Amino acid sequence: MNNNNRNPLPHQPSPKQVKWIRIWRGLKGIITSRIGNILTVLALVIDIVAYKHYRTLILNRNDMVQGYSLKGLETALLIALILLINIALFMISIMPVRAQKHSTIFRSVGLYNKLFQTPDLLSRTKDSGMEIYEYYVSGISVNEFEKVLPEMETAFNRSILYIREGKTKNRVLVYMRKTGIPSYVLFDDEYLSPKESEIVLGICGDGLKKIDLDKSPMVFSGGETGSGKTVLMKVALYQAYEHHNKIYLYDGKGFVDFSSYEINRYECISEKEMLLQTLKQLVTELNHRTDLLNEQDCRNIAEYNEQNTSEPMQRIILATDEVGEMFNKKGLKRAEKELVENIEKEMDTIARLGRAFGIHLWLSTQRGDADTIPPQIRSNLTYRVCGKASDVLSRLTIGNGLATEIRADQKGRFVDNSGDFFQAFDFKEPDSQ
Fold it and tell me: 110, 122, 147, 387: which sits with the fewest CB atoms below 10 Å from its CB?
């Protein structure tokens, strides 16, 4: 429960379940965790030193005070001291580092339940540049966390990437990372957005860099050889496929930059004649979807799917890694030029009208020629992103020269047409891991 009162009652004790969870994890941590190992060794050293002290100093004493042996008294005191030290070390091992600090932060942002209990930190792990914190919660939902997300980011001085329910209803996982742009991030399924229209491209200074296909339905990406634009497209298509999108992938070079993962899962097209046929099919599907949306008085695919949850409309993405090759007319015969012109015509229709009906384009290039892509198509590619590039290619792609600021050694670094720099994910196909 997120209370408006920012001055709650004094700290309330954690639920008993938290204490038992920490005790159990502390026992396991004696063997499995580094801190547990260190504390166990420290306890053994203290025990050995105490035993040697007992053997050399206490056992040899015969002091008596008023008829009582000091040997027995000192032995009892030593045993009590050893027990207290071992208990203290065990308590340190079961209490997650930062637990009290996190509790204080949650109270400061107003995240606590009706009994004024805050989320209790159970564990902290690291994965792919993220810090993953697991909390035990009682009467505090994921939605309550999200309501105070900006305040949490300020208090923790971290970007919060995700807040998700754990294995049980009383566990919440919070994924954080330090502010700033990392130099490398490997994609993991943890980054998959629960929103089917959303694709996560990488990490920027404010957290995750995402695009929403409902708002940015057409994508134009550029970059020199080695900039990472192919990998960027791969990770985007992977996420789209995981969201059950239909993927068409055109590559006139024979898919040398793609693995069996893409080839076996996507509809792969290597000939322009087949590409034109596919584009005509997509335009036909666009017209069909127009009729469906009109029949149900829906403005777009999102509204249609809200009304038809049992049979949602599938998004379709047509992607190519080098659009310049697709539209190149130099040296072509008349029939070949007509073929390219027909491709332009059908793709222009999709670029203009596909947004509302869930038919999307992802066009990439490494060429900076003015005729790389027809202007009427480029004008409808609403989201643009560029990796390391010449001034000409940068301006062709995002409309300015910002991509020239990316260094040659910053593979995977991109800037979009809103001026945001981010580090795109590296991607390893599941079949190759």
Answer: 147
